[in-house]
From TrEMBL:
Name of the protein in its database record: PspA/IM30 family protein
Any Pfam family matching the protein: PspA_IM30
Stated family: Belongs to the PspA/Vipp/IM30 family.
Region annotation (Disordered) ranges: 180-206
Organism annotation: Chengkuizengella axinellae
Residue ranges with Acidic residues bias: 197-206
Length: 225
């Protein structure tokens, strides 16, 4: 084997492999059915032509048969009337029509046999086509099921491992950040309240002092009475 032929074979194999990988079963099945329909249409035309030939030869065969019968009857009548020469000529013409009859009969038989064979082949093609249509429905259903299963398997194989898991982890970090910010805000709030409490405490001492002064006044008043 030459190196060029080997390279060509390898290239062809690679191309065929790519084609196989690129084929969509559903599209290809539809294309196969369309091709079969085209073949059937062509076969129907061929059968119709052959049937036309069969009918034409049958018509010629029947015409020749009629002439043979007619000339035989005419020859008998001529002989019965005593015209032997006319009877002879009628028989001669009958012989010529008989030769045509035999030829047309042979052609007709062959044409009919061919037409019958083509009819049978056309019926077989249509029967096979119907079988393929039924198989196509089954294969399409199987292909769709396989696609769905493959999609689910691919989805499940990466489920929670890549994008989803990373997204959840990112959101977890974000929530932790929010919680930390909220806690810091609470600390600031508490710090502010502590200052207010201290200031309030200073204010409450003045009230206590004033209250103590009022008590002293009241006690002095009671003594003077």
């Amino acid at each position: 084997m030459s190196i060029f032929k080997r390279i060509r074979d390898i290239s062809a194999a690679a191309v065929n492999d790519l084609i196989d990988k690129a084929e969509d079963p559903i599209k290809m099945l539809n294309q196969y059915l369309r091709d079969m329909e085209d073949d059937i249409a062509e076969a129907e035309i061929a059968v119709a032509k052959q049937i036309a030939v069969e009918k034409k030869l049958k018509h010629k065969y029947e015409e020749a048969q009629e002439m043979v019968d007619k000339r035989g009857q005419q020859a008998m009548k001529a002989l019965e009337s005593g015209n032997e020469d006319l009877a002879r000529r009628a028989l001669q013409d009958k012989k010529e029509h008989q030769e045509k009859l035999d030829d047309f009969k042979t052609q007709y038989d062959n044409a009919k046999s061919n037409a019958d064979s083509l009819r049978k082949q056309l019926e077989d093609m249509k029967e096979e086509f119907n079988k393929m249509k039924n198989r196509k429905d089954t294969l399409v259903a199987r292909a769709e099921s396989a696609k769905a299963q493959k999609k689910i398997n691919q989805t499940m194989s990466g489920f929670g491992k890549d994008t989803g898991a990373k997204g959840f982890e990112r959101m977890n970090e974000k929530v932790l950040q929010m919680e930390a910010e909220a806690e810091a805000s609470e600390d600031l709030k508490n710090s502010s309240r502590s200052l207010d409490n201290e200031l309030d405490a200073l204010g409450s001492d003045d009230v206590d002092d004033e209250l103590a002064a009022m008590k002293a006044q009241l006690a002095a008043k009671n003594k003077s009475e």
